[in-house]
Amino acid sequence: MFSYRRTPELPTREEALKGRAEAQFSLPERHTVLGNPLAGPYPEGLEVADFGLGCFWGAERKFWQTPGVWTTLAGYQGGYTQNPSYDEVCSGQTGHTEVVRVVFDPSRVSYESLLKLFWESHDPTQGFRQGNDVGTQYRSAVYTHSPAHQKTAEASRDAYQRVLTASGYGTITTAVLPATDRPFWPAEPYHQQYLDRNINGYCGIGGTGVSCPIGVAPADG
């Protein structure tokens, strides 16, 4: 996992690579761990959340291990290039960050609980990096799918900022934005559930050790 740019900098829409109208690959049909379809449409009653917290290999595993999560996908979001490739995203010329799409059953796991996992699984104060991984593709982001999720995500950011500040950390740099007009582009098949198929594969995920004061326990069932 790497970046081609020494000093990470987001491109403008005009500077970004144009991409292509169609994907260059087909997604696998099913999740290798959860067994459910990767691509939508998803069953009625499920909800979608998109999180960027550094390298998506380890980030995806965090979420597929969470009870109540129905499926997960690694992908790219928040940029301008249509159907980008991994190399293009790593070049810093698409504007995307690596994200995990989480499809979940809100009767079993709350959005607040997913946000708590998100905040505690990385350092959201690092800007265009996570640990030794440097580049715009590693920036922290939450892309929301409803006004209620937007409000909840903003409140969770503010709550976590207070405890981070008290623990000596800086300002959260996480983008909390609606997914509208910020399409999710699935990553190549070899990225999907990468750490299930490569048990000794690279994982750069690491949190601050500071507990986020939000979230409720998942309901039974």
Describe the protein in words.
This protein has about 220 residues and is α+β, with helices and mostly antiparallel strands. Helices cover about 20% and strands about 15% of the residues. It has helices at about 55-65, 85-90, 110-120, 145-165, 195, and strands spanning about 45-50, 70-75, 95-105, 130, 135, 140-145, 175-180, 185. It has a six-stranded mixed beta sheet, covered by helices on one side. The protein has a two-stranded antiparallel ribbon with strand order 4-5. Strand 4 (about 130) and strand 5 (about 135) form a beta hairpin. It is globular. Mean pLDDT is about 95; it is low at about 1-5 and about 215-220. Pfam families: PMSR. Has an important function as a repair enzyme for proteins that have been inactivated by oxidation. Catalyzes the reversible oxidation-reduction of methionine sulfoxide in proteins to methionine. InterPro entries: Met_Sox_Rdtase_MsrA_dom (IPR002569), Met_Sox_Rdtase_MsrA_sf (IPR036509), MsrA_MetSO_reductase (IPR050162). Belongs to the MsrA Met sulfoxide reductase family. Its EC number is 1.8.4.11.
Structural class: alpha+beta
Shape: globular
Q: On the 0-100 scale, what is the average pLDDT? A: 93
Q: What is the count of DSSP helices, taking H or I runs of 4+ residues?
A: 5
Q: Report the strand count.
A: 8
Helix content range of the residues, please? 10-25%
Please compute the radius of gyration using only Cα atoms: 16 Å
Classify the oligomer.
single chain
N to C succession of SSEs: EHEHEHEEEHEEH
**Strand percentage, roughly?**
15-25%
Uncertain ranges: 1-5, 216-221
What summary fits the major beta sheet? 6 strands, mixed
Distance between the termini: 38 Å
The main sheet orders its strands as 7-6-1-3-2-8
